[in-house]
Amino acid sequence: MTTKIRQNYKHTLNACYIGYITQAIVNNFAPLLFLTFQRSFGISLAKISFLVTVNFGVQLLVDFLAAHFVDRIGYRICMVGAHLLAAAGLIGMAFLPRLMSNSYPGLMASIILYAIGGGLLEVLVSPIVEACPTEKKEAAMSLLHSFYCWGHMGVVILSTAFFFIFGIDKWQMLAVIWAAVPLANALYFMVVPIRTLAEEEEGLSIRTLSGRTVFWILMVLMICAGASEQAVSQWASAFAESALHVSKSIGDLAGPCAFAFFMGTSRVVSAKFSEKLSLEKIMLGSAGLCVVSYLMISLSPWPVLSLAGCALCGFAVGALWPSTFSLAMKKIPGGGTAMFALFALAGDIGCAGGPLLVGRISGIFGDDLRTGILAALVFPILLILGVLASGKMREAAGKETAVTEAG
Description:
Layout: H1 2-7, H2 9-28, H3 34-41, H4 45-73, H5 75-99, H6 103-131, H7 137-166, H8 171-189, H9 197-200, H10 206-210, H11 213-233, H12 236-243, H13 248-273, H14 279-299, H15 303-318, H16 320-331, H17 336-364, H18 369-375, H19 378-406
Helix pairs in contact: 2-6, 2-7, 2-8, 4-6, 4-17, 5-6, 5-8, 6-17, 7-13, 11-15, 11-16, 11-17, 11-19, 12-13, 13-15, 14-15, 14-16, 14-18, 14-19, 17-18
């Protein structure tokens, strides 16, 4: 059985899909407990928003460092280590806050542990899938990113069911249960076959990448994509419960769960239409819908419409992250591990900055999450401007080339 697994790259893809489910657990389990942390440990929303920043901040630091050490250490060792660290962080979250006299450092230490694992996963999963000797790699990449959404849905639905049956006060037990997923996948990654991009081609250096204008445009798009997604995703549960005054079960299912479902659906749909529509048009349409959804969430006087805005936001942001990755692979072929790591870094800057802005602005206005989410409109608007600017630059470059040839 083990021999068959070692020779079949379908198992590699399966392990990568579970890797993104692990990433979804790392990023989306704790947000379901934000108000619980506030009530149980006496932590303000401003401090909770800093936990989100630490999570994605550590991930982006790992993204940056990974560009220098992953190829030297090897994909397999890094992937196994990433899953073990993710499991350690989830288990630590269950015990450290209670064991320490001050619960906040205990939460912080746990988040740092699983954030290191999450950062490694984000850097490695995409290039491992890209290096697999399979056909239809764009479809495989879209399917890969959709598993983050299905994992997000699973976290919300199963956690909500657990809280309903056993009570929210048993959340520590659930944290340990969720840790079983990365532990099992660590064992899986010990035996699946793994190829690296370096085996197929020599990747571009960081210096070479940084010298290309298109690289920096794509970096800005990645920042805005991450911020647009997580500004709502990280706060959807708390927003539904505190601002809309619905029960936690209904709020989680109609808020973050609907967000995740429509985000996954969006990635499947965008993959089907990617050959008919340009990536730029998909991204512009998605960012425009994102603006509409933010306005619905923050300005609607009716809770139902605000929750519908959360679902629409999931659909709107779904295509942004994978579309930027696909655009990068077309614009910078042969970018290699360094390119994936730096784009993951940019995405995590956005993932950290979006929720932080929402939390900080909400705190200034008396913990009003509506105002915080309204302020986050800056991210999809910047993304629209970035896509338009990239199109104008390409058009200008084409005209300049035509003039040179005519001369």
